[in-house]
Structure formats: C-alpha cells, structure tokens
Amino acid sequence: MTKISKKGQADRLAQMDRFFIDDLLVTSDKALLEEAAEDGVDIKETVKKGHEAFDRAKQAVGKSKLEAIRKAMAQDNGRKVVPIDRDRAQREIDAILKGNRNALSKLTMAARNQEGNDHDDDSEGLLEDFIELGVIRSDEPGANEK
C-alpha cells in the first residue's frame, strides 16, 4: 500500500468535494427532493431548520455590523471639537485669499478632491484645513501653540 502525503490527501479530499458539489448543482431540485424523501428526510422540517439557520446567520451579521458602527461612533465621540469664531475665521480666509491671488487657484476644488466652482460651499473644508495648518487660530487656549 502506498502512503499518501497529507497534501495529497487534502488534494484528493478537495477533488471529491468538487465532484459532489458539481453533482448536486447539475441535479434538478425535483430529483434532489425525491431522493431525500426516499431516504426518509422530512423535507418540511429540513426547510424550517434551513430558514432558522439563515435567520441566525443574518442576526449574527447584523450584530457584527452594529458593533462596528458602535465602535466607529465611539471613536467619533472621542474627537475633540475645536471652538472657533466662525465670523472671524471667515474674515481671515477672505483676507488670505484677497492678499494672495494665487491662493485661490492653488486651493481649487479639483486639487482638494472636490467638484464644482462654488468656493463658498467649500468654506468649511478650507476653514478646517487652515486651522489644521495653523494659518487660522483656534479660540481654544493653547491650541495653536507648538
């Protein structure tokens, strides 16, 4: 008797799996149900158990997604809100853009992965970027100190 390696055994097992799966896929539903009935399988009970298993799987996936959402929300809740005076910040943005004609073209929507030509709609993004870069001061004490 020839000894077969573990890899050879695994390959043979995978080949048998493919054979049985292919055989099941080409067999009609009617033929499968008839064969199951001949073997004494309670079709209605099997279908019921299948639906229950599917429902449990959907619940498990839903719980997993809900947990991921909860973690993401917890991370968002942990973010620090930087207080700013929006009117003052908008004046500073306007002054920067007025004082440097090239600044507006360098901050185009396309360069910032945005679309459209309405720069006012993107003022929130510009404001956040300028605060992060330290161009505009935050109203929080010590926030702009390095």
Q: Which overall shape is indicated by the principal axes computed on the Cα atoms?
A: elongated
Secondary-structure element order, as H and E?
HHHHHH
Query: Beta-strand level of the residues, as a percent range?
Result: under 5%
Cα-based radius of gyration, to the nearest Å: 32 Å
Structural class: mainly alpha
Mean pLDDT: 79
Tell me about the largest β-sheet: none
Amount of helix: 55-70%
How would you briefly describe this protein structure?
This protein has 146 residues and is mostly helical. It is 66% helix and 0% strand.
Describe this structure in words.
The chain is an all-alpha fold. It folds into three domains: 9-41; 42-79; 86-133, no CATH class. It is 66% helix and 0% strand. The protein is built from six helices and no strands. The mean pLDDT is 79.
List the defining traits of the structure above.
mainly alpha; 3 domains; 6 helices; 0% strand
Task: List the topology elements.
Layout: H1 6-26, H2 29-38, H3 43-77, H4 86-99, H5 101-106, H6 123-133
